[in-house]
Design a protein that fits this description.
Layout: H1 7-23, H2 30-36, H3 41-52, H4 56-74, H5 79-85, H6 91-102, H7 106-111, H8 122-128, E1 132-133, E2 136-137
Antiparallel strand pairs: 1-2
Helix pairs in contact: 2-3
Length: 154
Amino acid sequence: MLVRMTLEDLVRLRRARDVIDRDYAQPLDVPALAKVALMSPGHFSRSFRAAFGETPYSYLMTRRVERAKALLRRGDMSVTDVCFAVGSTSLGSFSSRFTELVGESPSAYRARRHEAGEAIPACVAKFMTRPVRGGEPVRREPIRNGEAESAGAS
C-alpha cells in the first residue's frame, strides 16, 4: 500500500515527532501522538513510518536510548536510574532494546571508557553515537511528497 502525503501531513507528523523528541521521558502512546498530528492512530502509524522510516514506538525508543547513552557516559547514575530517567518502565525491556540498538548491554556501555569522545562537540557526538539497527543508521529525513514508501516495505 502506497501512503501519499501532503505537505500539511508532513508538518503534522513533524509536530508529533517533535513531541517525542521533547517529551521522550513521559508516557507516550500512538493515540496521544495521533491526536497531536490530527490523524487516526492507524493512519498516523502508517504515515509516520512512511515519512521517517520507522514506527513511532521505534523512534521513541531510539530517542530514549540516545539519552540513556549520554547519562551512562557520565557514570554517576546506575543503569536502573537511567532506565527510569529516560521514561522506560521495565529494566528488562530497556536493557534488551539498548543492547539491540547499541550492540552491548547498558552495564557494559557504562563500564567502558568514554574519554575519547569528550573533546567532540555535543552536536557531533549526538550524531556519531546515534543508535543503529543492524549496523545501518536509522533513516531520519522525511520522504518528500509523492515518494512515500509502502507501509509494509522495509
